[in-house]
Amino acid sequence: MSVVGNNPRGMADHVVSLTKRLRQEIPSCLATGVVDMATGMLLTYETTDTHPAEVLDLLAGATLDLFQGRTVTMIEDVFKERRGISSAEHYFQEILVNSTNLTHLFIRNTMNEDVVVVVVCPKSVNIGMLFAAARRVVKELRAF
């Protein structure tokens, strides 16, 4: 199910509201974005800095690879098989990536698995506060 459904204007407003709330409520937040996994598109983003269009275009593809790449899907299938789970639900819900200077948090929306929120903070961010704030905002605004 794509984010862009029966009410594109309402969905667009909701996605923009989500990115703004994340930027406001997450300590030291540098950037946020929302990726639609069904279309492979970055729906919206908000950042404190300018980034080349190529980097923003690649973010959606990288997010898709992180959550639904071929190898990741194989790992999910093995975990499900070993645990006797027959659900089509994706196993990986949150991924934290640390780069040289930044921390990137990717959270799948529990109401619509095709929606992934991306949050970028300095590497010095308190990880517990990052997770707590991001989960709270995503939970409050999850009804896509």
UniProtKB/TrEMBL annotation:
Q: What is this protein called?
A: Roadblock/LAMTOR2 domain-containing protein
Q: Which source organism?
A: Kibdelosporangium philippinense
